[in-house]
Amino acid sequence: MTITITAFERSPDRGRGLARDMRIRWALEEVGQPYDVRLLSFKAMKEAAHLTLQPFGQIPTYEEGDLALFESGAIVFHIAERHGGLLPDEANARARAIAWIFAALNTVEPPIFDRSLVQILERDEPWYEQRLRALEDSIRKRLADLSRRLGDADWLDGAFSAGDLLMVTVLLRLKASSRILDDYPNLSAYVARGEARPAYKRAFDAQLAVFKAASTG
Amino acid sequence: MTITITAFERSPDRGRGLARDMRIRWALEEVGQPYDVRLLSFKAMKEAAHLTLQPFGQIPTYEEGDLALFESGAIVFHIAERHGGLLPDEANARARAIAWIFAALNTVEPPIFDRSLVQILERDEPWYEQRLRALEDSIRKRLADLSRRLGDADWLDGAFSAGDLLMVTVLLRLKASSRILDDYPNLSAYVARGEARPAYKRAFDAQLAVFKAASTG
In Å, what is the CA distance from A29 to each residue of A17, A84, A196, A200, B39? Predict the structure, then answer.
């Protein structure tokens, strides 16, 4: 069955791979599943046809036969459950890899995502510096904990998993707009290991091609 | 095998059921699994023994035999996967219920949780009113989308699922500190349906008993 995902027609990150369709592309590349992409304008994202697929008017979505899914974490998990290579077979190791999926999205991503938003939306506010500093403190607490747990391992818990895939995408957003990650050399190396994966590169190139086509079209 | 979870020795919410162990208690009550609770002081949460279980020094954790898990979303999902009653059997319906788990925690909870934090930590800041208003706008956008999707159904997608359990706990945090939810009568009724479940009540009473014991001990 054909897999179709949705993505920004013109990504606000200008093709830097920070939009959430990147996670789905990367997961599909890791498991070797081809996919189609339907591009959406910001206007189309808020129209009834898309809201039926994605109640909050966001990208990405995932369609495969009768199944329609939203939420990048749920979609990556679904891909990992259906195809080999993104979750361990052993039950306890699998449950721990799933815990890292949630940790990436619920514990590490929020202050990193907020920092990006504040940099865009609150730059001219009188409190800008103070807000930014508070968020950076929160980010550093998370990174210190994550760095200690990772230690000198390649991945968070044994082999590369969907948890690592999501954690790397979360940390890449930070790397794109700050030098904070440089203070945690094992996390920088962890992110670089993710980016070096052939599946990551194929996914990155595919989303960049969309942005370039939109810019020159 | 005995299940042991961790919870606050003295919950900052004063037993109102807003701490994240409530989610685990509720899920375990829904599937009829008994559990033990190990209570932790704020100091113990940051010590090495607990950081081995929970790298970010938070509660709850979940231990069962050789398995140790963290992240309330991952723990609720684990319980739902192992025991009947919290996820549909049919594959597509199951995947959609999992999407609601992620939607509750990644899309609906962040502005609601931030609003609670701002009310505690930023009340005296010059930007307090403006920050609160911005967060309430974000919350209302999410609630409007959620309300439209729920319509006049009892639960988000067919029978009560782990997705509903988490969404209700997220909305309860809002209800505890604001009247915003009153503007969405179908969501208020949805939350009330959650609170009326016998498993919810048993879980609520159990966490309240911990707080009362700590207060009078």
Answer: 14, 12, 13, 7, 44
pTM value > 0.90: yes
> Per the CB < 8 Å rule, is B95 touching A67?
yes
Three-state DSSP state, A50: helix
Q: Does domain A3-85+199-216 have CATH number 3.40.30.10?
A: yes
In three-state secondary structure terms, A63 is strand
ipTM of model over 0.85 = yes
Pick the CATH number of B91-197 from 1.10.1060.10, 3.40.50.720, 3.40.640.10, 1.20.1050.10: 1.20.1050.10
Q: Tell me the per-residue pLDDT of A113-160, one tens digit each, with 9 for 90 and over.
A: 999 999 998 899 888 999 899 999 999 999 999 999 999 999 999 999
List, for residues A70-108, the tens digit of each pLDDT value.
Answer: 999 999 999 999 999 999 999 999 999 999 999 999 999
Interface of A with B in 86-145 (CB under 8 A): 91-92, 95-96, 98-99, 101-103, 105-107, 109-110, 114, 125-127, 130-131, 142, 145
